[in-house]
C-alpha cells in the first residue's frame, strides 16, 4: 500500500522500519483558462506523486489541494489560502509526520504560485529546530519538486508546443489532466490564440491583464496523447529525483 489514506497505522509503522521518506502532493484550486480544469494543479501533482509512490514503494499523503492562488480570485471557482495560512498548514503536516519518525519530506508541486510560500515554510520548519533552546532537534529535510521541471519533461513540452507553452493554463498541464481524466475533457474557443504574457499583482489586476485566465499559452493544442507522453516522462524524472533526495 503506497497511499497513506488507504493504509492502517500498523502498516505505517512497518513502512517506517524500511523508509522514513514520504511524498506529499501539493496543488491549487484555481481557474485554468476557458478549457482547463479548476483542479489542474492538484490533479497533476496527485497523479504524478501517486505513480512515483507506486514505482518507488514510497508512502504518499493526501494531496494538499488548495494552495496560494490569491491572484486567481477574480475567476469563479478559485480558492486560495493566504501565504501565512499555507505555511501553517505545511508546518503542521511536517511536524505531525516527523513525530512518527518521518524525516524526509518530498513535496511534488503542481502550482508555480506555491513555490515562494512552500520554500518559506521549509525555512520556518528549519528555524523552529535551529532556535530550539535545547539545541537542534533531530534534523528533517524538505524538498520541493515541480513536476514540469525535469530536463526531458521541459524538452518534450517545448517540442510539442514551442512558444505556445506559456506560463499558466499551459497545454502541457491541460494535456496531462486529459490523459488522467478523459471524461473531463472540455473545449472552448480562445482569442487571441496565444494569450498575453506579463506580470500581475492582485486578482483584479490579473483579470484586467489576462481576460480569460491564460498567461502566454494556447491550451487548445493539448491532446490526451500528449498528456500520456508527458505523464510517463515526468514520472520517470520525478522518481529519479525522489531516489536522489532519499540518498542525500
Ligand atoms: Ni497550473
What features would you describe in this structure?
This protein is of the alpha/beta class. It has a single domain (4-247), classed as Rossmann fold. The chain contains eight helices and four strands, in the order H-E-H-E-H-E-H-E-H-H-H-H. It has helices at residues 9-18, 40-56, 83-99, 115-130, 151-161, 171-180, 203-209, 224-247, and strands at residues 21-26, 59-60, 104-109, 141-146. A four-stranded parallel β-sheet has the order 2-1-3-4, sandwiched between helices. Strand 1, helix 2 and strand 2 (59-60) form a beta-alpha-beta unit. The longest helix is centred in the last third of the chain and has 24 residues, at 224-247. Nickel (II) ion (NI) binds next to helix 2. Residues 32, 40-41, 111, 173 line the site of nickel (II) ion (NI).
List bound small molecules. Answer: nickel (II) ion
Tell me the number of structural domains: 1
Q: With helices defined by DSSP (H or I, 4 residues minimum), what is the helix count?
A: 8
Mean pLDDT: 97
| Helix percentage | 40-55%
Give the neighbour order of strands across the main sheet. Answer: 2-1-3-4
Q: In angstroms, what is the radius of gyration? A: 18 Å
User: What is the class in the CATH system?
Assistant: Alpha Beta
Strand fraction band? 5-15%
Terminus-to-terminus distance:
25 Å
Q: Which homologous superfamily in CATH is the superfamily?
A: Creatininase
The parts where pLDDT drops under 50 for at least 5 residues are none
